[in-house]
Write the structure tokens for this entry.
Amino acid sequence: MASGIWTTEYFSCPNCGLPYTATREHHPDKRSGSFACEVCGSKVHAWSGQYDFFDWKVDQVSSPVFGKRWDATGQR
């Protein structure tokens, strides 16, 4: 049974740089696996241990809004 503690992890493809997110979950038993880039097929991440990774997605980075100035707190 998993611990129920999930965290979001961020990865980038070492070949093409495509950003990904995945959910990491702690397990009491050993897990292993790997994930390859959807675009170029390079290995993005491999794991072996008491964590499992799932729900891999391309990270949708928000594009800048041109013509608007934001301060350090994100306010206009």
